[in-house]
Amino acid sequence: MGTFGRLACLSFNGNKIITTGGGGAILTADPELARHARHLVTTAKIPHDWSFIHDEVGYNYRLPNINAALGCAQLESLPSFVERKRRVAARYIEAFDQIKGARVMREPAGARSNYWLNCVLLDRAGGRDEVLAATNARGIMTRPVWTLMHRLPMYSAVQRADLSCAEDIESRLVNVPSSATLEKARA
Ligand SMILES: *Cc1c(COP(=O)(O)O)cnc(C)c1O
Fold it and tell me: What is the rounded CA–CA span in Å between residue 61 and residue 47?
């Protein structure tokens, strides 16, 4: 996990499989990148007995020890959380197997998904809002995918390539409840 590319970023936000309450981690095998990342997230201050010199624009993004301790404890539960997530996904896949017009996104061959969030892809373009309205009216917390960045006001005028594939998927994708505790809740 996290070994693709020179740096990988993990989020430990509250809605993730394991959490530290907020924050995340950067993984890298490159000691120089690790040093620079650590420097940037600790205000880019040059270590010195008394002077406060920052040698580039830095950030106060360090993970506090108390949150890190929470994360260490959460790590011990990670395998069981992932198993529960995978069982929830397996039930969705099974349930939608016989349903026409929709399919559950599943892991590609050769990959092992943590199934953090399950999504249902509808065949029909533009069918999403109908499903969102009907399920939410029945107390099922379905959601659309996150609004594509080029539709957000601050990025509406930036340069973009052809995004018709992303727009098509956005119009057909429904995110479904995926909590690791969902299994227990079933009737
Ligand atoms: C959680 C998540 C983010 C946001 O991470 P934060 O730590 O909440 O800022 C971005 N992209 C994906 C795919 C995520 O799952």
Answer: 17
